[in-house]
Task: structure prediction
Amino acid sequence: MTGWPVAHLFGFEIRIHLSWILIGSLVTVLVVSQLEANAPTIATPMKWLTGAVIAVAFFLSVLAHELGHGIVARRRGLDVGPITVFFFGGSASFQLESDRPRDEAAVAVAGPLVSLAIGTVLAVAGVLAQAAGDETLRAAGLVALVLAALNLILGVANLVPAYPLDGGRLVRAIFWARTGDERKGSRASATSGRYVGWVLVGGGLALMLLGETTDGLMLGLSGWLLGSASRAINRRLAVQELIEGVRVGDVVDRDVTTVSPQLTVDTFADQLMERGEGSALPVARDDQIVGVVGSTQLRRVGRRSWATTRAEDVMVGPPSMAALAPGDSLWSALDRLRRTGLDGLPVIEAGGFVGVVTRRLIASAIQDRAKLRGVTIR
Result:
């Protein structure tokens, strides 16, 4: 799964995507450049400190946007996995799969509404602070106005009809509701996202040619990300069609042994690594599966700690780890692995352990069916 886990809020695991290193830096530089142009008397260290504070505050604003998605989704009974904070809002909803178009629409609009509400409150507070005679309040008001602008831009920009922006989710929900076909809705959102991405990249290049390097770079980066997302949707639809009709029981690894929660990592690490990236081992106590340990969890434990770290210390248990049945579709298994970020899930039938389905096995099944049909997934 993308992103680094940093916290838990309201029952959600919060992750930060790598893109925030670049985005935080760009926001900081943009603020500093504006301060140099409009408030040259401010000391340079204070300008950079202000830029960093606004970048952090903007991150918290995007996080609030994402939590809006997650909370509404949870109230509607959707299975919400970890929330990964990207530059754009809508990344939480990217992990959500609705069964009804109206749920899709409700989750999509929740984030922009949160951003617009925060932006409005900050704008009012900023205007009032600017009207005060105190210099400190005026400075705080300026910061509030900058954050208000960022939140309002975030809210409005996310309504652009391009996946994974929330507007793209709305396009998907609308076409899904009108056609009754979820895939047609997804294709419509991918198409709109691709066109919007081209427009933004072109606009970014134009701004850079006009000397607005920072703004042009951010706009072009936004377009590139949207174009990448639209291609990802098409790849996902191609994969879904390839494994349509395939069941979990068709690919389950039955030749796998369980490990005890008390076993130290060094006793089974080699076995897990031999199975390859995207593999997992089930953890059982008294013949009951209580968790899974995947290659992802193994990487988080330093090799020096293997001898003192037990399986129960690194395993992932319920509710993230939910057992599958042999009759479940392989697509639903892949979807659950994607949402939870796990490398594998146990397969249970009539109360007994059957085996595990892992990312590695699913990838092999997809490759085999693609070769059989002469299909290339790009």
About this structure: The two ends are 20 Å apart (CA to CA). The CA atoms of residues 217 and 335 lie 34 Å apart.
